[in-house]
Design a protein that fits this description.
408 residues, alpha/beta, Molybdenum Cofactor Biosythetic Enzyme, Chain A, Alpha-Beta Plaits, Maf protein, 3 domains, 6-stranded mixed beta sheet, 5-stranded mixed beta sheet, 14 helices, elongated
Length: 408
C-alpha cells in the first residue's frame, strides 16, 4: 500500500519549528508493513488543497498533520471537506469534550473553538485527550479504489499518542495478511562511505530481495539493510566477515551506547580528561541511560594551568612539549585514571582552530590517550582539519572507538 505524508504549517518551512513528524511516522509505520513513499511539507493555505489532490491520485493511505486548530490559518478540515464534497457537521461528543476541557483548565472559550467540533460527514472522529482538536479518519472511494485519509493534530504531544493509540490499530486492520519486511543497521567506524561500499557493496547486492543503503555520519557510516530474515542473516555474515574490526554497533546503537553497555557488562569504570572537546566526551557518555554505573568523573581542563591543577600534569612537561602533544595527552589520561580511581580514562587535547596551528601541529591535530588500570597507556595522533563542531565530534567518536577496540 502506498503511503504519503503531508505536513502542514508555515512554521515548518520558515525554520521556526523542527519537523519531527516524518521520523516518528516512518518508525511507527515500518513494523506495520508500511513505508512512506512520499512526504511533502506545505504552508498554511491553499497549498494544502494541491498536496491533497496529488496524494489522492496515487496513494492508498494519506496522513495529514496540522491545521486542525481554531484559528483562521487552520483550514485542513475545511479544505478536505470541500475537496471530497462533504458537508461539515458538528460532532456533539467532540463539542462536549472541548467545553469540559476548557472548564477544567479554567480557560475562556472563543467562538472559533466550536470549529474544532466540526467533522466531514461520514468521517470517524478520533478522540484527542491531549488537546482540543480531534483527529479525523475518512474513507474515500472513487474509481473502484478506496483511499484512507487521516487528519491528525500537529503538536507532537497530541499527534504521537493519537497515532499509537487510535490510528495504528486501524492501519493494522488495513494491512492484515501483509508480511512486513525487517530492517537492520550496522555502524561502521573509521571508513568513508565509498570505501565501505567498495568492501561490502557488491556482495550484499547479490543477496536476493535485499535493499541496501548507506548513511554517512561524522567518522562513521551506517549500513542499512531491509529484507527477509534470511536475507538479513546473509547480510550480517558478509558485513562481519569483511569488516571484522570496523563494525562498532548493530541495530542502530550509537558508539557511546556500545561503550556504555560493554563497560557495564564487564563491571568496569571510565573517567575522561578533556581539553579540545570541552566536555563533549562526557556529555555523549552521560546521555546514555545507565551511564552512572560506569562513568565516574569528567575533567574539562581547557587551560594549561587547569591541566596541572586538576590532573597533575607537570607544568614543565607542557612547557617542553606543548599542551597538544603525546606526553601531555598521556599525563592527562593517567591523571584522570588516578584521581577518579577508574579502570579506564580517555584524554583529548588538540587544535580545534580556526587559529592556533603550527607547521608541525596544524589546525585539526589531536592527541587521544587511553589509560588502562594495570596496563600501558596508549596514545594516538589524528588529524581532523574541519570546523570546530565537527572536529569535536570526530575527536569524541575516535576516542570512543579507541576504547571500544580494547573492550571488544
Amino acid at each position: 500500500m502506498i503511503v504519503e505524508v503531508i505536513n502542514t504549517g508555515s512554521e515548518l518551512l520558515l525554520g521556526n519549528t523542527v519537523n519531527t513528524h516524518l521520523a516518528f511516522l516512518g518508525q511507527e509505520l515500518f513494523p506495520l508493513g508500511l513505508r512512506i513513499a512520499r512526504q511533502v511539507t506545505v504552508p498554511d493555505g491553499e497549498e494544502i488543497r494541491d498536496a491533497l489532490v496529488e496524494a489522492l491520485a496515487r496513494a492508498d493511505i494519506i496522513l495529514v498533520t496540522g491545521g486542525l486548530g481554531p484559528t483562521t490559518d487552520d483550514i485542513t478540515r475545511e479544505i478536505t471537506a470541500e475537496l471530497l464534497h462533504l458537508p461539515l457537521i458538528e460532532d456533539q461528543a467532540t463539542w462536549t469534550a472541548i467545553q469540559e476541557r476548557f472548564a477544567r483548565r479554567g480557560f475562556e472559550m472563543t467562538a472559533r473553538n466550536r470549529r474544532q467540533a466540526q467533522a466531514p460527514q461520514g468521517s470517524t472522529v478520533l478522540a484527542n485527550p491531549n488537546g482540543t482538536a480531534p483527529g479525523l479518519y475518512l474513507r474515500h472511494a472513487e474509481g473502484g479504489v478506496t483511499r484512507h485519509l487521516f487528519l491528525i493534530p500537529g503538536p507532537p504531544r497530541e499527534l504521537r499518542p493519537m497515532f499509537q493509540d487510535t490510528i495504528a490499530p486501524i492501519l493494522k486492520q488495513l494491512t492484515a495478511g501483509h508480511t512486513p519486511l525487517l530492517s537492520r543497521r550496522w555502524l561502521v567506524i573509521g571508513l568513508g562511505e565509498s570505501k565501505v561500499e567498495s568492501i561490502i557493496g557488491e556482495a550484499l547486492l547479490a543477496i536476493p530481495g535485499l535493499e541496501l543503503g548507506y548513511c554517512a555520519r561524522p567518522g562513521a557510516v551506517e549500513v542499512r539493510c531491509i529484507g527477509s530474515s534470511a536475507a538479513l542473516a546473509a547480510a550480517e555474515a558478509i558485513i562481519t566477515e569483511k569488516l571484522p574490526t570496523q563494525v562498532a554497533g548493530e541495530g542502530g546503537a550509537s558508539l557511546e551506547e556500545v561503550v556504555v553497555h560493554r563497560l557495564t557488562a564487564l563491571g568496569k569504570t571510565l573517567a575522561a580528561a578533556e581539553s579540545c572537546t570541552g566536555g563533549n566526551l562526557a556529555n555523549k557518555i552521560t546521555n546514555i541511560p545507565g551511564a552512572s554505573a560506569i562513568f565516574l568523573a569528567g575533567f574539562v581542563t581547557y587551560s594549561n594551568e587547569s591541566k596541572t591543577r586538576a590532573l597533575g600534569v607537570p607544568a614543565e612537561l607542557i612547557a617542553q612539549h606543548g599542551a597538544v602533544s603525546d606526553p601531555v595527552a598521556r599525563a592527562m589520561a593517567e591523571g584522570a585514571l588516578d584521581r577518579a580511581s577508574a579502570d579506564f580514562a580517555l584524554a583529548t587535547t588538540g587544535v580545534a582552530g580556526p587559529g592556533g596551528g603550527t607547521p608541525d601541529k596544524p589546525v585539526g591535530t589531536v592527541f587521544i590517550a587511553l589509560a588502562i588500570r594495570g596496563a600501558a597507556t596508549r596514545v594516538s595522533r589524528h588529524s581532523f582539519p574541519t570546523d570546530r563542531a565537527t572536529f569535536k565530534d570526530l575527536t569524541v567518536q575516535t576516542a570512543l572507538d579507541v576504547l571500544r577496540a580494547v573492550l571488544a
